[in-house]
Amino acid sequence: MSRFNASLNYRFDSFCARSRLCSKCRRWFSGRYRVLLIIGIFIILINEFLFYQWAYFNWSNIDELAKKSSVEKLLIAADPQLIGEKDEGIFGFITRKEADRYLAKTFLQAKSYVKPDWIVFLGDIFDEGLSASDDEFKRYFERFNSIFDYKNHEQHYIIIPGDNDVGGEYYGDKQPLLRKRFRNYFGRIIALYHQNDIQFLK
């Protein structure tokens, strides 16, 4: 009997605790706190959606020019520098996720607007390409692919390495293995591309 009474008392205390918590939550979401919550949601909506759409609708109209058969449309992505895993401290995971999300979102918007025949990346694909181990470089490449959908459109991507990827500014040009590793993932560093009587040399 005493065990039964103890169980009832425990359930009653738990119910009271939940009731007090619910009451506090209701008070928190009422009055000025509700206003702060609405303002916060509105700010997120503006920054994560409205600003992008506003910029998109203010871009110049290129449809008429693009209708000409002789026109080749290029989308140039300069210096994406995917954030590495070594220099970002304890918040590195959050920083990488947020930066990757931003890159993916803006790239998709630009790509849907231009509808390019070619996409050119002008070097410094990774921020820590020089110091990355082979496993880290592989993870960086997988992130690059998930952001820019590289593997499904590889024949229309021209990837130019930068000094952060294969060296050249300080010491990397003395390490052929860096260029070989980059080539294994992104193809030849020096190559000639053809389309519609137009040649692209990287």
TrEMBL record:
It is found in: Membrane. One of its GO terms (biological process) is GPI anchor biosynthetic process. GO terms for cellular component: endoplasmic reticulum; membrane. The keyword Hydrolase does not apply. Residues 75-180 form the Calcineurin-like phosphoesterase domain. GO terms for molecular function: hydrolase activity. The keyword Transmembrane applies. InterPro entries: Calcineurin-like_PHP, Metallo-depent_PP-like, PGAP5/Cdc1/Ted1. It is a multi-pass membrane protein. It holds the Pfam family Metallophos. Its main location: membrane. It comes from the Eukaryota. The chain crosses the membrane at residues 33-55. Keywords: Membrane, Transmembrane, Transmembrane helix. PANTHER family: METALLO PHOSPHOESTERASE RELATED, METALLOPHOSPHOESTERASE, ISOFORM E. This is Calcineurin-like phosphoesterase domain-containing protein.
